[in-house]
Amino acid sequence: MSYLTTRPGADQYAPYYATYIRLVPEGHNPLQQLREQPVTLRQLLHGLSDEQARLRYAPGKWSIKESLVHVLDTERIFAYRALRIARGDQQPLPGFDQDAYVPASGADIRPLEDILGEYTAVRTATLSLLESFPAEVYERVGTASASPVSVRALAYMLAGHEAHHLNLLQERYLPLLK
């Protein structure tokens, strides 16, 4: 899958997503990054209690559990977009309001291990889908959130979005637990 080591062009995603795409190192396969991230996440969360996983690094910010469920929601939506575009669907796909999804998720009342089990299932499904696509599918472009987006860009956005949240976990949450 070396064909995935070239980043998508700026015309293949909305400018907002450049932040995530930059979090996939130049020349790195985003699917490999998606395979590696669960190991990193489990290492970071090892030994964390349910109470600790309800930590918010500042008032009004999401808890660790809410952030994890947000990553899952976003991964499902991005993977769904990739599926639709990969199959040639040209219907514009709507955006979603992450700030409405998080409180509705009930993440803080769920056991952390339950969330991590769901994470494993979602990641397995995402990788299975992305790995099933032939190389030419990654060049297909559709519309999501009123902007063009390619399947390639979605693969990069998936890996970069989680990288962003792993960085937040390391930089803002975990230091408060020491």
> In which order are the strands of the major sheet placed?
1-2
Number of helices: 6
Radius of gyration: 16 Å
Coarse structural class: mainly alpha
**What share of residues is helical?**
40-55%
Under the CATH scheme, which architecture would be assigned? Up-down Bundle
Strand content: under 5%
* Total E-strand runs: 2
Describe the sheet with the most strands: 2 strands, antiparallel
Runs in which pLDDT lies below 50 for 5 or more consecutive residues are none
Summed up, the domain count is 1
Q: Give me the oligomer status.
A: single chain
Distance between the termini: 40 Å
CATH C-level category: Mainly Alpha
Fourth-tier CATH superfamily name: dinb family like domain
What is the H/E string?
HHHHHEEH
Question: Mean pLDDT score, rounded?
Answer: 97
Shape: globular
CATH topology: Four Helix Bundle (Hemerythrin (Met), subunit A)
Protein name: DinB-like domain-containing protein
Domain DinB-like: 33-168
Pfam families: DinB_2
